[in-house]
Fold:
Amino acid sequence: MTLYYVNTNKQNNGDNEVHSSTCGCMPIEKNRKLLGDYDSCQEAVKVAINMGYNANGCYYCSKLCHTS
Structure:
């Protein structure tokens, strides 16, 4: 399982990126919210969406979930 976070700051396109805890592009601590431990980025993105974020996977650490 992997820990995932959502960036609370929206990207220019309106997305909140979901990152794994080991991602080199993870936002600073004050700009991220812990989503929890999941087996896949798909699960983490779904949780972020249910929390009200316009979630999308990070291109670098959650590429399978990156759509824009």
Q: What stands out?
A: The chain has one domain: 2-65.
